[in-house]
Design goal:
By secondary structure, this protein is an alpha/beta fold. It folds into two domains: about 190 residues, 3-Layer(aba) Sandwich (Rossmann fold), CATH 3.40.50; about 80 residues, no CATH class. Helices cover about 40% and strands about 25% of the residues. Bound molecules: adenosine-5'-triphosphate and magnesium ion. The site of adenosine-5'-triphosphate has 12 residues, from strand 2 and helix 1.
Length: about 280
């Protein structure tokens, strides 16, 4: 396997609750991988570690990026200067937490519960997501330098590209709050993609969608992976969607990995069937 992400011995607790216990797995590059498991298994917690929202008690997460390999947990506890981040971002990670720093390295995510700027337009949501990519400072913003104008133009082009991809172009001036639920889910993915990630983490993107919207999402995610240099890690309870679009599956239960394999292997795995017993898949 040529992994984009490698997780080693990841453990985190909340009070007495062991949310993740010695979790080990890797996910392949330029493919769709799924992270599944019953409610409370630790899936979102794992996303929160990979995307810099939580600092695990123990373990390492390696992102094998196109240009460099970074150990993400170490980056969340940098000294005054990390070689991978530079001074400004080391300070930001130290004092404000790590999510935007990991986004800078190419990790983007969506949330289990939609988190859009509801009172901003669709286009504004996509432009705000790119603010860290704008090549500017107070001076270039005030004087509208050529570099600033160019990077603003690029941000608009990228936003238009993803709006078109997710079939949201007709709604670009609408408020996010005015979109249907399915459109809001797609806008969240478009917003994550505007940050130009190498690894896209989607937390239950089909939750709350009707069967037609889920089929549409399935088509879009497969097209996305086929035509871009992107690796996707997907948390999802919709087993039909998972089995249809993912090449690689990791199963968590009670904070531990109980199975790793292809969809065909996972569907016949006795421990997985036992973990899901009583659910639609069991
Ligand atoms: N910030 C937190 N504080 C306290 N407990 C937490 C926190 N985050 C997660 N947990 C606990 O860790 C465990 C794993 O939760 P997590 O949200 O990762 O599960 P999940 O697999 O995403 O479940 P679901 O499928 O329901 O979304 C649960 O017992 C949860 O209550
Ligand atoms: Mg969750």
């Amino acid at each position: 396997m040529n992994p984009i992400l490698r997780v080693e011995n990841l453990s985190i607790e909340f009070g007495g609750i062991v949310a993740l216990n010695q979790v080990n797995f890797q996910i392949p590059r330029n493919q769709i991988s799924a992270l599944i498991g019953p409610n409370g298994a630790g899936k979102t917690t794992l996303f929160n570690c990979v995307t810099g929202f939580y600092r695990p008690r123990e373990g390492k997460i390696f992102l094998h990026g196109a240009r460099q390999t970074s150990e993400l947990c170490g980056l969340l506890n940098p000294g005054w200067l990390s070689r991978d981040l530079g001074l400004l971002q080391s300070l930001q990670a130290r004092f404000f937490g790590g999510s935007h720093v990991l986004n800078h390295l190419g990790v983007a995510r969506t949330f289990q519960n939609i988190r859009l700027f509801q009172q901003m337009s669709v286009m504004e949501n996509l432009l705000v997501a790119q603010h860290t990519k704008l090549k500017g400072n107070l001076f270039s913003g005030l004087f509208n330098t050529q570099a600033y104008v160019n990077s603003e133009r690029t941000a608009l082009e990228i936003a238009r590209y993803w709006l078109d991809f997710f079939e949201l172009s007709p709604y670009l001036n609408k408020l996010a709050a005015e979109l249907s639920y399915g459109q809001q889910r797609r806008l969240e993915i478009a917003r994550a993609l505007c940050t130009r990630p190498q690894l896209l983490c989607l937390d239950e993107p089909a939750a709350g969608l009707n069967p037609q919207e889920t089929a549409e999402l399935s088509r879009l995610l497969q097209r996305l992976c086929a035509q871009s240099q992107l690796s996707i890690l997907l948390i999802e309870h919709d087993m039909r969607l998972v089995m249809e679009i993912s090449q690689h599956i990791i199963v968590l239960d009670h904070g531990e990995v109980i199975a790793i394999g292809t969809p065909a292997q996972i569907q016949q795995h006795p421990q997985v069937l036992a973990a899901y017993l009583g659910t639609e898949y069991g």
